[in-house]
Amino acid sequence: MQMDFDNLFSVAGKTVVITGGSRGIGEMMAAGFLKAGAKVIISSRKAAACEEAVERLKAYGDDIGAIPSDMSTMDGVNHLASELAKVTDKVDVLINNAGAAWGAPIDEFPEMGWDEVMDVNVKGVFFMTQKLLPMLRAAGTAEDPARVINIGSIDGLRTPKMLTPSYSASKAAVHHLTRVLSAHLIGDNITVNAIAPGPFPTYMLSTGVGFGGKTEGDDVDWGAIGAQNPAGRVGAPSDAAGVAIFLSSKAGSYVVGQTIALDGGIVATC
Q1: C-alpha distance from residue 173 to each of 43, 117, 176, 223 (Å)
Q2: Residues 122, 173: contact at Cβ < 8 Å?
Q3: What is 15-269's CATH number?
Q4: Number of Cβ within a 10 Å radius of residue 110
Q5: Out of 60, 167, 203, 254, which one is annotated catalytic?
Q6: What pTM did the predictor assign?
Q7: CA-CA distance, 196 to 45, in Å (whole number)?
Q8: What is the pLDDT of residues 15-51, one digit of tens each?
Q9: For this structure, is 167 an active site residue?
C-alpha cells in the first residue's frame, strides 16, 4: 500500500458554510478556515452582525461572505439554502453551529424557552443539512467526502451545573442525530460528526457566568473560569478551528458519527 501524507490537514480551496458564524465559536472556526485557504460563507440572524464579522474576518483571508438567515425558522433555512445555490454549486463543509440557550428554574421554565432552543439547536440542524444535501453530494467523493460538523456541547454529555434543561436536552439530541445522519449519509460520501465544546470565551458563556455577554474587559475574568477546568484554561480559537479543520481534511476523512469533547478534560474527569 502506498502511503500518502501530502496535504494531510489541508482545506485549501474548500467551500465552508458556518451557521452562527458571526461570533463565538463559529467566528473562531471561520477565521481558522480562512487562514488555511478555504472559502467561507457565514450566516447569522442579524445582517449587521454578519457585516461586522466579515470585516473582522478579512484579517484572516479575503474569500469570506455572509448570508443573514434565521435558523430557528424554516423560512430562514430555505432562504440560506436558496441564496447559497446562487453563489456555489457545491458545499464541501457544513458546520451547523447556530445555537440558542435558555436558563430558568424547572418550576418556572416557559414553553417559549423549550421551543426556541429546540427549533434552533435540533430542528435547524436537521433541515439545514437536508436542504444542502444536493450541494454536499456534489462535493463528496469516496477519497474526500463532504463533511457535516454539528456543534453540540458537553452539557449534552454530562449534567451541567447551570439549569438549562432545553439546552442540555437539545445538545444530547444533536449528538445522537449526528450518529443517525452519519449512518445514512456515509454511502453518499458525506461524513457527519459532532464537536461538543466546553468553556470558550463566547457571548453565550459570558451571559451564563455573570459577565453580561462581554468577552473582553476589566470585569471579564476568563482566567477564573479556566481555573475550574482540568486543563487550567478556557478554550482558544485555535482549539475550535483545529478540530474542525481536522474533521474537514484528509486526516479526518475516515471519522464517521463521532462526538468529540473539546473541553480541556471536563467530561473525562467528571
Answers
A1: 22, 12, 5, 31
A2: yes
A3: 3.40.50.720
A4: 11
A5: 167
A6: 0.96
A7: 22
A8: 999 999 999 999 999 999 999 999 999 999 999 999 9
A9: yes
